[in-house]
Amino acid sequence: MSINIKAFSLTLIMFIISIALHAQSLSDIKSVKVDQLTDAQIATIVQKAEEQGISKSQIPALAEERGMPAMEASKLATRINQLNSAGVSADEANSGTMAQRQLTDTARIGRDRSEADSLSEEEKKIFGYGLFHNKKLNFSPNLNIPTPQSYVIGTGDQLLIDIYGDSQQSYDLSVNPEGRVYIPNVGPINVGGSTIQAATARIKRELSSIYADLNSSNPRTFMQIRLGNIRSIQVAMVGELQNPGDYTLPSFASVFNALYAAGGPNRQGSFRNIRVFRDSRQIAEVDVYEFLMNGNQQQNVRLQDNDVIMVPAVETRVEVQGPVRREGLFEIQADEDINDLIRYAGGFKSEAYTGRVAVRRVSDQAREVADVSKEAFGSFKVKDGDIFLIGKKLERFENRVQISGAVFHPGEFALFEGMTVKDLIDKAEGLRGEAFLNRATLYRTQQDMTLEIVPVDVKGVVNGTAQDIILQREDVLHIPSKYDLKEEYYVKISGEVNRPGAFAFADNMTVEDLVLKAGGFKESASDAYIEVARRVKDRTNGQIAEIFTIDIDENLEIDSGDEEVVLEPFDHIIIRRSPGFQREKMVRVEGEVNYPGQYTISTANERISDLLKRAGGMNQFAYAKGAKLIRRTEYFVPKSDNEVRSENLREVKENLVKEEGKNTEAEVNMLNRIDKKINDKGGDISNQKGLAADEFRAERVTDVSQSDSTRAAKVEFKTQEMVGIDLLKILENPGSDQDLILQEGDILSIPKELQTIRMRGEVLFPTSARFESGKSFKGYISKAGGFTDNARKGKSYVIYANGDVKRTKNFIFFKDYPKMEPGAEIIVPEKPEREPMSATNWIGLASSLATLGILIDRLAE
Predict the structure, then answer these.
(1) Domain 490-577 in CATH: superfamily?
(2) Does domain 754-861 fall into CATH 3.10.560.10?
(3) Could you please report the per-residue DSSP string of 145-197?
(4) Contact predicate 22/159, CB 8 Å
(5) Distance of CA 275 to CAs 194, 272, 378, 443, 542, Å?
(6) Do domains 490-577 and 754-861 have the same CATH topology?
(7) Residue 671: exposed, middle, or buried by beta-carbon count in 10 A (0-12, 13-18, 19+)?
(8) How confident is the model at residue 790 (pLDDT cuts 50, 70, 90)?
(9) Reduced to 3 states, what is the DSSP secondary structure of residue 684?
């Protein structure tokens, strides 16, 4: 698009705006005053330009090209940018509603809230100081309010006039620098300096020349005037302010808006005597405390152009310390007293002593302290710098007594004149059944704050047979329970029951009752040998306990020949394991046998040869010389009976559970029983102690680990290890010493015929080599490249396939290396590291040698 077309388009736009304005003759663009254009008119210019393909940045340049003064073109660019930043469209700007009222040619009120006001400790103490530094308050004037009738119209204000009724018309007028608005067919009307109310009457009178019915006694045409966009005003802020200076504010701004814009009074500034001057005359004096204490904004007057706000220095500021709702620094006026000060501090807290206040002040020569009684609060003269110290009430009770122990409602009670121990017991709703009546203790506080104990015959006092005791302030009566004076009674059961442990004692409890509480006998229990151990209280013959043995069958019935044993406190019942009971013990056969797998040890003296026979013997691929036995070490922790039982029950449950609704009633009942037993804490392995040997092993492992923290990381406690066996000799001579008796967890492993030799450790190339009959130890070392420089040859050893180990033997300079067999493994260890001698050691050695030489020389003489 050519520049001529753009210029023509812009001229057309300005002509359209001139029709809307009617207040300016825009046939010549040179006469346009941008300050008198409303935001709605600027938005319309931008909208029309964009419809013609002209960008916002091009509009000022084209306007200047058509004759607009450079200053006005610059103002136009600023107004367009401001409108763009505010995000206001032409439709929004032309709506005319109060919700769209904006400021014209003015910066937004308030400080940048991203700059957080950080207050010093002293500033935080000044009452009211945080009001103008609160992020949640910005005191921005509310522009979206109904047009105030008292609002004084000035240059730049936008007046929106609506004619409605029989006639319909709207006027959008701006007040020019002369304070006038121009109405087509009426002419200029002076409204500057007038209130909305006065301007409305004047405009209505002038418009009646066009709308005759407007001022008739029975009108059918009506008029309404409201503010559109408002002007800005200049206000001077002087005195003790954070940021004094001249501020551009909206014409709706009040004193608080201006104070906030200036950051509020500084540390020396007064919050009580802020003065507002207009035309060199004071029109208001603002007391911020009125707003803070009463919410009163009567003094918060609306500002006008060229108003001056002066914040003087504070005259009288005092500090309040102690238990008040709001400690801090407060400004006091000449006619105020301590009562007003306490009110500003939020009043006393409940713990404050209100009878007097201590005042620290600086006199003409030194510091002094004044005591002000409550009666003198209203007459005491407050001075600048005074510090008011509020004391606390005494931490004591005037009329408290307490009762504790075996009563229904222990606690604190109010003491009345003549109150006795019996009265206090009655207030506590009486004694509980387990109260110890022979003696109670009354703790009494004496004058010197020491305690005195007064014995009380509770039974006598309650029955009236003993003299009652009159209580004093802070008396504490403690009535003990019988159970506080003796051990808690219990009985204990251990051994082969499902839930061993200690249980609460009950009168007339028998052994059968306790077995029932313990969940009954285990399968391993011996019902023919139950032992009851009873404490001996006063024997002097060395007897420690009385022992009873009884027989109880699985139905918890005592043998006909035994008497029923009634238990006493602390009795210990021990259920022995049946001598013939043995949990099955499993071993395993692996490798080249006919029937590999798990086997149960059948007898206590079953041996390797017996196990191999049960496994069907070796097959044709077996290498008997390589057979080995893997056995658990003392560090292996076997599963307890309870743990084994729980695992077996879980397997039973898994095999019983079917799809929902498909289990029989008997199966459902069994599942419930299994769940109960699995979840039973008595069957939890964590609650069962193992054998003493197991515990000892665990302690030994801990001791070894803690004995050397450096070695602890290298220590490995193997739970299984190989035992070297000679299976051929075992088969030749079953039952011999070579034929070991089996233990639980043993694994007999018989490999296939082996054909390799393995080399490990300090050889140049650790590898495996084919076994060759007659080849020596060193021959296989050669196949691995030979020894390394760091090899400890004399300590080399061989691990044979069956687990046997043989080492190299040394005689003078000769070495006898072990013979090699298929499946063997050669291990060449590393030489230990030797630390080189330090300079200090060399010096010490030289000194010793020198001393030795001198000694020899003297002996020779």
Answers:
(1) Outer membrane lipoprotein wza domain like (3.10.560.10)
(2) yes
(3) SPPPTTPBP-TT-EEEEEEEESS-EEEEEE--TTSEEEETTTEEEE-TT-BHH
(4) no
(5) 25, 9, 28, 67, 102
(6) yes
(7) middle
(8) confident
(9) coil
Q: Check: pTM over 0.85? Answer yes or no.
A: no
Higher-confidence position of 83 and 721:
721
Report how far residue 672's alpha carbon sits from residue 789's, in angstroms, rounded to the nearest whole number: 70
> In terms of Cα–Cα distance, which of 272, 259, 390, 288 is closest to 331?
272
Q: What's the pLDDT tens digit per position in 547-602?
A: 888 877 666 565 555 567 889 888 999 988 887 777 788 899 999 999 999 999 98
Instruction: Please tell me the predicted confidence (pLDDT) of residue 706.
Output: 52
Distance CA 804, CA 548 (A): 54
The residues, ordered by sequence, that sit 6+ positions from 431 with a Cβ below 8 Å of its Cβ are 406, 407, 408, 425, 437, 458, 462, 479
Q: Which amino acid is at 399?
A: N
Task: Tell me the β-bridge partners of 568.
Answer: none
CB 558, CB 550: distance < 8 Å: yes
CATH top-level class of 400-485: alpha beta
Secondary structure E strands in 668-733: 720-724
Please give the span between the terminal C-alpha atoms of the chain, in angstroms, as a whole number.
128
Token pair in block for residue 201 = 């009457």
Question: Measured between alpha carbons, how far is 627 from 591 in angstroms, rounded to an integer?
Answer: 9
Burial class (CB in 10 A: 0-12, 13-18, 19+), 8: middle
Continuous H helices in 349-391: none
Residues contacting residue 789 through CB under 8 Å, at least 6 positions apart? none
Q: Which two tokens stand for residue 297?
A: 């904004």
Q: What superfamily would CATH give domain 158-227? A: wza like domain (3.30.1950.10)
β-strand pairing of 586-591 with 747-750: parallel
Would you state the CATH architecture of domain 317-389? Roll (3.10)
Read off the DSSP letter of residue 450. Answer: -
